[in-house]
Every structure is written in C-alpha cells, then in structure tokens.
C-alpha cells in the first residue's frame, strides 16, 4: 500500500487553528463560511469558531465514491444555497482537501458572479489541484487518512444521495 498522510483529531485541531491564523493574518474578514460537505463541515466549523464567524452555509457536492474512485464530474446536490444569501458577501469556502480541485472550482464558480469576494481554505492541497487555494495548511501528493473517514461506516447506505 502506498504511503499515506495521516491526520489525527489532535493534528486537525492544530491545522484548523493555523488556517484561521493565516486567514486572520491576511486581513481577510469573511462575512460567511461556505462549507463543502462532507469533509469541509469539520473545517468550516473550526474556522467559524476561530474567526468568530457565525454565518455558516453548506454546499453538498458528490465527487468521490471511494479511495481513488470518483464520478466524471462533481455534482451539486440539493439543497443548493440561495444566491441571495451570498450576494455581495465576502465568502470563505472551506474544505478538507483540494485534490483535483474540481469540487472547489465548481463551488467557487457558483459563487463568483454573486459575491463581493471569494477565497478558499483547505487543510490539504495536492499539486494537481486546478484551484490554487489562498489558505493551505499542508501540501501533499499522498492519499490522506482523515480522522472522520478513516474507519468504515457503521451502516453502509449505497448510493443513497445520488439515487434520491
């Protein structure tokens, strides 16, 4: 098995705090944080507390279906955020990893015509990402074991979202 990047809960705490300090240090003061579910939920929550931003939104995007298994293109799943809630806001998009960057690009492009400014914060960014994030804790080309997804689900619900 190829070598992997291992993120523990404790290390995630350090990473999310460092990301928040990077955002604050840049002078960017987001009006809201837009989380890319599911992995971005953890990042957005941690950033929301650290940056004292209470306005958190969620965008559900399906792309990965397993280790190195993905759909051809990322797909936005309902409910899609109302663009009225984003209009003229400074938005910080939060996700766990910019792998190919396709998911981040989809969400950033969705926001671009409506928001005052949009920036991206990720725990990890991979070299092949088509989106260069403004805030990155660590860059790697390895597969990442995240603490929230390194164990199999307690219950498996095959293709529940896309079939809904």
TrEMBL record:
One function term, GO molecular function aspect: glycosyltransferase activity
List residues traversing the bilayer. Answer: none
**Any one Pfam family match given in the protein's UniProt record, by short name:** Pribosyltran
Keyword set includes Glycosyltransferase: yes
Source domain of life is Bacteria
Keywords from the named record: Glycosyltransferase, Transferase
Annotated Phosphoribosyltransferase domain ranges read 9-149
Q: Which PANTHER family match?
A: HYPOXANTHINE PHOSPHORIBOSYLTRANSFERASE, HYPOXANTHINE-GUANINE PHOSPHORIBOSYLTRANSFERASE
For this entry, the protein name equals Phosphoribosyltransferase
Species: Amycolatopsis albispora
């Amino acid at each position: 098995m190829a070598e992997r990047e291992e993120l523990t809960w404790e290390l995630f705490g350090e990473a999310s705090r460092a990301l928040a300090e990077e955002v604050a240090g840049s002078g960017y003061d987001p009006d809201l944080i837009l989380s890319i579910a599911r992995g971005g939920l953890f990042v957005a929550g941690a950033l929301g507390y650290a940056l004292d931003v209470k306005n958190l939104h969620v965008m559900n995007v399906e792309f990965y279906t397993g280790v190195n298994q993905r759909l051809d293109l990322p797909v936005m799943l309902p409910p899609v955020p109302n663009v009225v809630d984003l209009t003229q806001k400074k938005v910080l998009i939060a996700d766990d990893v910019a792998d190919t960057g396709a998911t981040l690009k989809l969400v950033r492009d969705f926001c671009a015509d409506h928001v005052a400014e949009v920036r991206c914060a990720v725990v990890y960014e991979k070299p092949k990402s088509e989106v260069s994030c403004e805030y990155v804790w660590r860059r790697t080309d390895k597969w990442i074991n995240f603490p929230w997804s390194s164990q199999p689900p307690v219950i498996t619900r095959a293709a529940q979202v896309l079939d809904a």
